[in-house]
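Review form for a predicted model. The reviewer records the input and the model, then writes brief findings.
Reviewer: anonymous (R2)
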Amino acid sequence: MKFRCQENPNFQDDRTLEIWKICERLRSSLDPSEIIDLRNSFQGFDRCSSGFIQGHEFARILNCCLRKPLCCDVICRLAEYFSTPDFGGVAYGQFLDIITKEDESCDAKQEKYSLSSAEHRRLALVLMSIAKTLRFREQILRPYFEEYERIAGNVGCVTYAYFKRVLYFLGVTLGRSEWELLAKRFMVHHCKLDYEAFVEEIDQLLRYLDTQGPVKREEDEEVPLKVIIAELPKVDRSEVGIVNLEDVFEKTTTCHPCVSQAREDRSFHILMDHIQKHVWKNRIRIREFFDQYDLLCCGWLSRTQFIRSMDAMGLSGLYKFPMTDCEIKLVCDHYKDPRNANRIQWVCFTDDVDRVFAEKDVAKGVCQPCDGEHVSDDVPVEKKVCAHKERDLAAEVIQLIRTLVSSRRILIEPVFRDFDPHCNGHITRGQVGEALAMVGISITEEQKYALDKRFSDDFGFNYTRFLKEVDPSPCVPSAYETIQRKAAAHNRKVEATSHHHETDIVRILAKIKGQVIRKKVRIVDFMRGFDSLNHARITRDQFERGLATAKIELTSTEVRTVADMFRTPLQDTVDYRKFCDTIAEIDYQCNLEKAPLLVPLQHFTSEDGPHNHLNFEERTIVSRTLQKLARYADVVSNLSSPLKDFDRNQLGIVNKNQLIRALAMRDLHTAISSREFEVLCKCFGVNIGCRREINYRALLAALDYLYANRHNHPF
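Model under review:
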C-alpha cells in the first residue's frame, strides 16, 4: 500500500500527508524485534486470520506494545484512516506493510547487489562451474524448487537449507566461501534465497554453453570437479619491473618496492664474487648452515634445503645481500648433481666460497681477502652521474638543516616522533615535509626528493638515520662503562704495589696446597666444567674463575704468576690438568711407576707468609732454640698442660705473655734468651684478626719430632 504523497510529492492532502509523517516516524523509531512483537500482538487478537481487528484492540496494542507510546489523538487518526466500514475493523496488515515493506525491499535490494568486483568475478566462475556440472549430467534445476514452492507457498523463494540440499542431491558441492557468495547474491528477506534469479542465470549459461558445441565426454577437462572452488587467475602485470615510474611521473611520491626499477640479473661469476665479498665482510662460516641438513655427510642436499640454507646465511631478498629468484636458480643449476637435477652439491659451493679465506688442501694457505676491486659494477654511467648529483644535493641539504638546528636551538626529534606513534623508526614521505615545516625549515621539492632518495627504504622514510646526521647527540658514556674504567684503573694501581713474594711460584703453590688441605676441595672438579672438548686447556679468565669458584684466595698477581707458569706453549691458554696434578701431590705423587725406588713424602701445611718469613740468621737461631727446648719436650716437662689451660676455647693459639708464663712454670724461660724468644714467636706466629698469636700446637709438634729423633741429632 502506498500513499498518494509518496507517488506525487506535490499532492495537497493534509490528512494523507499527516498519516504518512506518522508512519515515517514510527518506521525510524521501531527496531526489527519491536515490529515482530507488534505483528504477533495483532495476530493474537485476529483469531480468524482475516487481517482485521477491532478499533479498541488496535488502540490498546499501540498504547501498550510500543516503547514510546503514542498519544490518543494520533492513535485515533491511525485507526480512523485504516478502518474499513464494510468489515467493521481496522486493517492492521496494511498498517504493518507500510511500516516494514519498504525497508525489507530496500534491504533485500542492497543485499542482493552489494558485491565487489572481485566477488563478482568469483561468483561468475562458480555459476559457470555449476552450469557445466549440470550440463554434463543432463539435469534440470527448476522442478526441484517448484515442488517446494507448492508445499510451502513461497513465491520464488526457498530456505537456505533446502537450496543447499537440492544442489547436494544434484552432485554440486561447493566450498564454504562459494556458499557465502551465493547466499550474498541471491538472499532476500534476510533468510531466504531467490531461486528464480538463480535458475534464470544458470539457464542463460546453459544456453551459452549449448552454442559452443556438444559435451566432449572423452576429455578429462569436461568432467566436473568433486568440490567447486573459485580461484581467480593471476593478472599478468608485464609492465612491473620494465617501465620506470620515475620516468613517467618524474618524482616518486609513493614508497613501494615495485616503484624502483628492477635491476638486471647478474652473471654467475659476478654473483659468486659478490657472495664471497659478503661472506668475507661478515665473517660467515657457511659450512655450519649446510651441515645441519646433511646428516649422513653425503655432500648433497635437496634444492629446497639448499635454498633454505642460503636464506639462513643472508643470501635472499630479505637480508643485506639481495638475490632474485633467477639468480638463486642460476646458482642451484650450476652446482646440481649431474645424475639427479634435484640434488645440489653444497660441498662444492662452500669450497668455492671459502677460497676467499684460504685455498683448500694447502697446509700453509695464504688469506686472500676479496677487496671488491675485481667485482664488476653493473650500474650504467648515466645512473652513476645521477646518483652522484643526488648524493651531493642531499649532503648540502643535510648541512643546511644541521646549521639551522644548531643555530636556532631547534628540538627536531620530538616533531618526528609525533608522526610515529608505534615507534617504528619510519614515517611517510609526505610527513617529512610537514615535520620540517613545523620547525620552520622550508626546502624545495628537489631537495626533498634528494632526501627521499638517501633515507627512504621499503618501509618509508627512515628518520632515525636522518636525525643522527642532522642532530647528532653527544656521546655520553654509560655508568657501566665508567665503573669498568675505574675498576681497571684501580686494579692497575693495586698491581703496581704488588710485593715480591707474590711472584714466587714455590710460595704460591705452597699457599694453594695449604688452602686445599684445610678446605678439602678438588680443584680439578671446578676446572673440568670449562673444558667442554676435553683438551686439558682453558683460557686465563676461565682459570681465574675456576680458582674463585673453588674458594682459593689468591691475589691477581699470584693468579697471573700461576697462569704464566702453566701456560701452554702454542696458545695463550692454561694447562689446568698439569696444574691440578701438581697440587694433588699433597695426597699422591704421579708417575711413581717410572721411579720405583722413590719414596713419597707426606705434605705438611704451613702458615708461612710475610709475617713469619725468616732469613738465614733467624732460621739458625730458631734451629738452635728448638734444639735447646727439645731436651724438655712435652713427654719430659708436660709443657702442653699449662698451654691448654691458657687456651680456653681450644683454638690451638696463645699470646706471647701466656707462652712466656707457661715456659716460666716449667723453668724453661732461663734456657733461652729474649732474642731467641722473639724469633721463636715470629716463626710460629699466626695472624688472627688484627693481632699476632702463637700456634703452640705446631711448637709442641716440632719439639716432639726433635725429641723422637734426638739420636740422629746429637747436637
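Findings: The first helix runs from residue 4 to 7.
Further findings: The CA atoms of residues 506 and 562 lie 10 Å apart.
Recommendation: see findings above.
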